[in-house]
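input
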Amino acid sequence: MSGSAPPATAPANEASLIVILVAAAFFMENLDGTIIATALPQMARSFGVHPVDLSIGITSYLLTLAVFIPVSGWAADRFGVRTVFTTAIAVFTAASMVCGMTQGLAEFTAARVVQGIGGAMMVPVGRLAVLRATRKEDLMRAIAIITWPGLVAPVIGPPLGGFITTYSSWRWIFYLNLPLGLIGIALAWRFIDNAREDAKRPFDTLGFVLCGFACTTLLYATELIGRSDAPWREALAFLAVGGVSGAVALVHLRRARNPVVDLSAFRVHTFAVSMTGGSIFRISISVVPFLLPLMFQVGFGMNAFHSGLLTLAVFAGNLSMKLVTTPVMKRFGFRSVLLANGAFAAATLAAMSLLTPSTPDFWIVAVLFVSGLSRSLQFTAINTLSFADVPKPQMSGASTLASTLNQMTMGMGVAFGAIALRAATWLHGHSAQPSTPADFALAFLFVAALGFVGIFDVFGLDRDAGAHVSGHVSTRRAAPSVLTAPSGGSERSERRGDSS
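output
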């Protein structure tokens, strides 16, 4: 292996600053994926098009993220974490400025694609910087901090975008990224190490094309299925093509010497569980920022401002849980938390089906706040367990793989929400327009069922999985072992991670 070796963990103060910096970059990137939703009518007037036509501004950004994230791991290994991360922030910031200055839909879409390329590099490379700078015992706190942008941004994005659009101009949604980006570039260049893994690893062009094509066609197919006037033949054709290209991509990635997406981290059991069942659970959770405001405004007849204020209760729950996540994980461990809290989080999604237009705001806020608490804990536990047993040399590939799957599940969550809503209206036997509270109630039950499915993989985890990260000491580990050999049952999860 050429290039410098991976750096030792950074001093505590520098590591904390890197975590905060990366969390801020993640927040900026996640916010731009949802903030323009409430600004579409004003933007459409500026461009002289129909508001529906501007949906391409959202989908083009999300698709670009999914397609280009796999490039980030190779780029970080080739050019260094600091170089790629600061360049990504610079590209994202510059593209944001161009988005705010555009005068037509075509140039706006092009600018969003470039912005997505910058965002795609920020996500996994920023996480890699945190993983390399943080000690194992501090990993829980670090992951908790960089997880909250993915939870908070989709919730506060629409109301924040509506506020900026109402009292100023939609262009300021993008201009506000300029000072944040400049500060981020300066701090990243100063504090993030520029270590490389392998500067001579060739780029897997075929793998990149196959993965990008599979991601694009699959996401587009699910979006088509969720439309009220879905062209079924076209949707099924894209779904089939996406499935075949995805299968071909998997075969290639397993055989390639230097794959664009390294699948070897799946041999680590804790990582595999987090990426399989965890991805299913992420899809169910990602439905909430899409389906909830729609239920409030279309089903309950609320205005956008009222809807936005209620949705903020989920955000309050997300942040509140951050205060107790580490003690909870230390007390109960990953397996118990993922099982019990996962079932509870799915139950809170089902509880949203009980809300009606006559439900007092107090009870709506209470349900959403509790859902935000469980949602945040589950996200942090899954994301931390993902890297608990991954060896340092595999961190780059694992981070890229996790980011790609996370982005795919985020896009599929919105699509699944639309599909669940359409299925509900069909079962109720009325038009494709989801205009009744009963439609939304049934849709949330579908989403909750998917959430329950996502926890079944957790049963296969060892009771002490990830204990060296969470600090949890179970009764079995605390009790003196009858066996004296170092290969006793209590060491199974650690051995599994090390041997992978």
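quick obs: Residues 204-259 form one domain.
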